[in-house]
């Protein structure tokens, strides 16, 4: 089969793999809404609180405190803005490709991809337009005197999106195996 025939076959299969209109109504609003919420909260907190200031939400447990992070999760790859920006761009392109072309029709998968994309894009925006730094502001004390690394809404969206993606893949895998077993038992 020549390249033209392969390309033509792929194009015929493409519409069956694209998300349905409900999938777009799930993914894009979550992506856009999450991104807007992240950027708005970062701007609001950094405009409101100055460097070194904080605001207690739950005394001894949660506070808002502006912080700039030049690394990834837990300070990994600190001072490597170009690398982290490139990884974020690749991740965003992969997420969009998975949503658009993988045939992922489960709503939970589409929800998780929308949240994941919003989180990646929110922190990517900061890296590009904030000198390689991501604006963090949520400080959680998980044990007296022990603080979780400061994070933001985008980080929360990333974690929720990844968690839901794991759950979705477990259910999708299981439902696919059940369907395969039913088809095998029907053909025996």
Structure in words:
The chain has one domain (19-187). Helix content is 65%, strand content 13%. The protein is built from five helices and four strands; from the N terminus they run ααββααββα. The protein has helices at 3-17, 21-48, 81-101, 107-129, 153-187, and strands at 55-58, 62-69, 134-143, 146-147. α2 (21-48) runs parallel beside α4 (107-129), α3 runs antiparallel to α4 (107-129) and α4 (107-129) runs antiparallel to α5. It is elongated, with a radius of gyration of 21 Å. The chain starts with a helix and ends with a helix. 27% of the residues are buried. The model has no long low-confidence stretch (mean pLDDT 86).
Strand order of the largest sheet: 1-2-3-4
Q: How are helices and strands ordered from N to C?
A: HHEEHHEEH
Strand count, sense and closure of the main sheet? 4 strands, antiparallel
Mean pLDDT: 86
Number of strands: 4
Which descriptor suits the 3D outline?
Answer: elongated
Percentage of residues in DSSP E strands: 5-15%
Q: Which radius of gyration do the C-alpha atoms yield? A: 21 Å
Which parts are unreliable, with pLDDT below 50 for 5 consecutive residues or more? none
User: What's the helix count?
Assistant: 5
| Helix-and-strand structural type | alpha+beta
Straight-line N-to-C gap:
34 Å
């Amino acid at each position: 089969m020549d390249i033209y025939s392969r390309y033509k076959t792929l194009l015929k299969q493409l519409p069956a793999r694209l998300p349905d209109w409900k999938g777009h109504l799930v993914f894009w609003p979550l992506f856009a809404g999450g991104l807007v919420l992240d950027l708005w909260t970062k701007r609001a907190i950094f405009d409101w609180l100055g460097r070194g200031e904080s605001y207690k939400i739950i005394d001894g447990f949660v506070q808002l405190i502006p912080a700039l992070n030049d690394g990834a999760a837990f300070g990994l790859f600190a001072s490597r803005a170009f690398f982290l920006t490139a990884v974020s761009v690749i991740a965003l392109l992969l997420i969009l490709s998975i949503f658009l072309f993988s045939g992922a029709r489960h709503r939970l998968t589409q929800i998780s991809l929308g949240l994941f994309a919003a989180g990646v894009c929110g922190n990517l925006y900061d890296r590009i337009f904030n000198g390689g730094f991501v604006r963090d502001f949520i400080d959680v004390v998980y044990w007296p005197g022990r603080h979780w690394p400061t994070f933001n809404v985008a980080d929360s969206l990333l974690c929720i999106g990844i968690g839901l993606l794991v759950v979705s893949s477990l259910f999708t895998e299981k439902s696919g195996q059940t369907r395969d077993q039913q088809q095998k038992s029907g053909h025996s």
